[in-house]
Amino acid sequence: LGSRRTLVHGAGGLVDTVLREVAQAGAGHGGQVRHQEPRPADGQRVVAGEVDAGAGEFDLVLALRTTAPLPDQAVAVEAEFRQRYGEHADPLGDEGFVLGRHGQGTVVLADAPAGLLYGLFHVVRLGESAFGADRPVERHRPAMRLRMLDHWDNVDVHHDSGQVERGYAGGSIFWQIGEPRRDPDRVRAYGRLLAACGVNAVAVNNVNVHATEARLLTDRIGDVAAIAELLRPYGVRVYLSVSFAAPIVLGGLSSADPLDEEVRAWWAGTTRQVYETIPDFGGYVVKADSEGQPGPFAYGRSHADGANALAEALAPFGGVVHWRAFVYNHRQDWRDRSTDRARAAFDHFAPLDGQFRENVILQVKHGPMDFQVREPVSPVIAAMPATRLAVEFQVTQEYTGQQRHVCYLGPLWREVLDFGPWGAGGPTVATVAAGPAVDDGGSASAAGGSAPTAGGGLVAVSNVGDDPFWTGHPLAQANLYAFGRLAWAPGMDPSAILDEWIDLTFVPSTTADPELLRRTLHEIMDDSWHTYERYTTPLGVGFMVRPGHHYGPDVDGYEYTAWGTYHFADRDGIGVDRTRRSGTGFTGQYPQPWSDVYESLERCPDELLLFFHHVPYGHLLHSGSTVIQHIYDTHFAGVEEVARMRRRWERLSAAGLVDPGLDARVRERLDEQLRSAQEWRDQVNTYFFRKSGVPDARGRRIH
Ligand code: BDP
Q: What are the Glycosyl hydrolase family 67 C-terminal domain coordinates in residue numbering (predicted)?
């Protein structure tokens, strides 16, 4: 904000945060802030610097429009807003804001303090252009009410998962071996970072709940309250992953049967105590009957019974339960070709549609398997119109290079969000997750009978740890940012989000050659998801990673295991037959037109071919290439692209355009990415050459 003069009009809650932020942004630059509280009527108070009371106009006005009388500049923008939006001018909701210009000033209007804070961050994002002369009035509201990050953080360090399960950015930001972190500034800074990205909810512990972590729900709830206190000023609510067996493990009961009265009373009492300690607590996250976690199946109960029992305990306090749909048998017989892990979530949950309480949110991974570099959209998203659904992404790069590889995931998520499960022109994944628009006033649900009145939102597994760069690979921060931005506005262009992030992160006005910096970073990152796909698993087949830690290639690593993750490559062909005609029948879980599109060898999109079909190596793709030649070509090309990325970065280093510490970190990671990409290329190409016996049409050397 430099030396600008700001007026903050309003009081309560996050308005203090807004004031602090504004004062900080102007400090040392001659910036001035006036705080105008609505009550008492004459209660004007200068918070930082001096403002000439007679000077009338401010450069920036941040005003709660619910607190009259509004400052003149705000009144003018309010009028323009009403004129432009007419009957749609209300409501802005808890988090929305209006941005406009009047005279020499920029004005943010909101109906609640969080809206002012998001408005301020938006002004910061726009930089100088927020203060440009002609800027038509705009309304901003988040598409998703819930924009949540799940931390797979353990309080203790566990032999199987370390401190952060699938964490690639050091230790936990919340916990240090056995205890809460003793560094509140870092957690506070994280809250600020999240609000600046648009995230408003955080689950503070791993979905795989070990014994120490289970206790966060009861005798260690104070530790959670301490985190909530640090995040609250930034509008971020906390959630807790809980064990379905908590009534036994913590409560000493003999059962966790969700229909048992004693069990329900235990959940009710425990939850009441949680809310006594944390009145704005968000709710529970539950992974049940999955990968060894306890669940309702042990009592012959359904997942609706299980979820509803916890939801009932949360309902009096306005809490929700995020019940994960990631339920499958991880002990299946790999010789049994009739089983298919991709089918599991739909088979378990689709029949339960309509049976969940209103405050249950079914949290569905975006693909039917497990965050692979390429998967179709999960058919569950189209199968449960009477259930609140949240869509889950993985910002932590478990299967996309573990924050050692540059892999910007914005384009992948945008593709998922844009997908129309009922065909082009119909509702999209984003609209299902968002639920009925605020404007509808619930009319969609009235029309649909039992349709939910709210969406479940967007959730992602966090990629943040205590690493000095937050995310291990400094460029992986872009994924955190893109997640928050897409959850707020799913229609945003991921390329534009990337540019925003580059500008905010790397391009201070003092940079010697901002254009070179901007362009080069964009070139390195924009298509890096496709690059990663090219040198790893081809055409939607997935996995082929080293078992356990999931980094680097191991073509047959999971092929004869119980996890249900197969490619079925043999000397004649590759791919998983998931058709109704001759395979597992998974294509039948999709509505039309996708059910027929995926079923058809001719119509199935190339990039998903091996997810749905088992084909000979000589099968001709729409691209004109054979499957085997596509594998060779993409793997050679992917490695070349990584080499190019590295050369591009060297240009930036040579020009001295990036901080030396950050430069060293990125260089080390790019070296590793190149090494790893070559390893992928060589193992995948050699494997398929040996299996198929088909030489490379372009005569390149394959061992
Ligand atoms: C898989 C991870 C595993 C998680 C699981 C989950 O490998 O560590 O516990 O997802 O989502 O991708 O529960």
A: 471-700
